[in-house]
Amino acid sequence: MRATVEAGEKRPTSNAQLLSWVDEMGKMCKPDRIYWCDGSAEEKKRLTEEAVASKTLIALDHEKLPGCYYHHSNPSDVARVEHITFICTPTKEEAGPTNNWMEPKEAYQKLAGIYDGAMKGRTMYVVPYVMGPSRSPFSKVGIELTDSVYVALNMGIMTRMGKVALDRLGPESKEFNKGLHAVADCNPDRRFICHFPQDNTIWSVGSGYGGNALLGKKCLALRIASYLARNEGWLAEHMLILEAESPTGESQYVAAAFPSACGKTNFAMMIPPGEFKGWKIRTVGDDIAWMRVGEDGRLWAVNPEFGYFGVAPGTNRKTNPNAMESIKKDTLYTNVARTKDGDVWWEGIDSEAPAELIDWKGQVWKKGSTEKAAHPNSRFTAPMQNNPALSPFADDPKGVPISAIVFGGRRSTTVPLVLQSFNWTHGVYLGATMGSETTAAATGAVGVVRRDPMAMLPFCGYDMGTYLGHWLSMQGRIPNPPKIFLVNWFRKSQDGKWLWPGYGDNMRVLKWMLDRCAGRAGALETPLGFTPREGDLELRGLKDADIAAATKIDLKEWEAELESQSEWFQKLGKTLPGALEHQRQLLLLQVKATLAASK
Ligand code: GTP
Ligand code: SPV
Ligand code: MN
């Protein structure tokens, strides 16, 4: 220990539980220095300067991009790692058939071996944070210990970080999530993301990237929170939350679950086409929703986050102007491409690639190269206050009342543009059987269809069948439940073109869903649910869409789809609620009967 105490080395809390845990973790990781983050602007400036000095961050052109910095991650560490993410419950059954499981004692021992001395020569940052509005009774306090200044700075954008969290915790409370994170030597062979729901603990080692390392996000706000939510009777979901204000000034709120890199940020920030004069879409959240039943019997949603960790490729002035505006200042860019003079570029940004770039690996990239200049999972971290379309309710302790829940995957075939469920159970079934093509947000093959129930396959902190049972049981707790829909922006023609233009034009589908909630729009009743007829959708001004093909329900395709869901349900095993298999069989019967009748 050094004789002088620098800023942040003082222990700004008297919470004995917290202090002894930090001491214990410090003894194991053996950092040179332990630094307590206070979340101040002065601290952010100082840590940023240190990160630039150590080449963790590169300053961008501050004329063009004030307060913006760049980070190259280790090339072997660019996405979430689902195959080495574990739920460490006392029994394997509690983690269920869709999660990797490790016995808690074994996991602690194995990771302790990697953490031992891993922070020698480094600083251990103590990052106190609140998930949820700081005054909300539903918010949760977490403490992340990390050896990465990049992680500490990201947590400063993504959460309410610093003194605010210690104040909320107070001197006595033991109720905080214990998160230990070390990039250590960033060795993929010694990389593990372990969750201990019973201990409210997360141990993550070997990765400095996104959902592996920013422990408040997927680890706490989804995996640990989903476990708590089930015990406490609420929902922690991988959902955006948006506010839709109509020209008459009436607001409705929607929560939508799309898998990673399937359009949540875009939908939450959407700008409606010109034909929707007077409509305003505002963002409450873009990735996670915590939802509870309010005193009025409706379902109320809160965004636990404070910033956006968004996909860069495909983001431009046309597809997502609000995101482009949000990332103009005080933003961290990770693994996009950059120019020598400190600007950023990625595939699908507005401008053509310049003749030369520095690619996401730090190599010179020449225009025309077959390699991507930005990594497909390159990201921006931006404060939500930067968003011109931020909802005034984004920081509301109560949240917003949800009228519609939307599930949506990335499906080239079969799934129509939009489908409304008959009722809650059918809606839960649509979510439970949702399929989606995999994306670059996780390591592994891209474009493979997998079942991703409620977009929670990688994020559910307990047994999936039990989770689906919890969803069904919520019906009894919500006297005035939202309507449930399934959407697909990603259907393609035989020659591989999008059938639906997506982005702002998704307003056309949103409006139909909102009108259905208010009992104002017509629909066709099909054996699979309600769909809009062409006249039910506002299509004025729409270009480049094959509406008939996008909304079509091909019962032959659905017969195969429903049959293939049987395998998925078998995988979920004996905790799968009987009502869902019953629903599947009923739909299959109806589809077969309709097909037979039309012969
Ligand atoms: P995560 O942050 O990983 O959870 O992703 P997300 O669900 O927020 O996805 P995001 O909105 O960042 O979109 C991911 C990719 O899909 C981007 O490249 C978008 O440009 C693209 N995308 C989003 N919405 C649409 C759409 O309506 N149609 C099409 N074709 N692409 C879209
Ligand atoms: C996702 O993969 O769903 C994300 C990005 O939102 S990460 O934070 O890396 O999980
Ligand atoms: Mn996400």
Q: Which features does this protein show?
A:
binds sulfopyruvate, 599 residues, binds guanosine-5'-triphosphate, 31 strands, 28% helix, alpha/beta
Structural description of this entry:
By secondary structure, the chain is of the alpha/beta class. The chain contains 16 helices and 31 strands. The strands form seven sheets. Strands 1, 4, 5, 6, 7, 8, 9, 10 and 11 form a nine-stranded mixed sheet that branches. A hairpin with a 4-residue loop joins strand 10 and strand 11. Helix 11 runs antiparallel to helix 12. The longest helix is centred in the C-terminal third of the chain and has 20 residues, at 578-597. The chain starts with 15 loop residues before the first helix and ends with a helix. Guanosine-5'-triphosphate is lined by residues 258, 260-266, 286-287, 310-311, 313-315, 319, 441, 489-490, 498, 502-503, 506.
Brief overview:
Helix content is 28%, strand content 22%. It is α/β, with parallel strands linked by helices and 599 residues long.
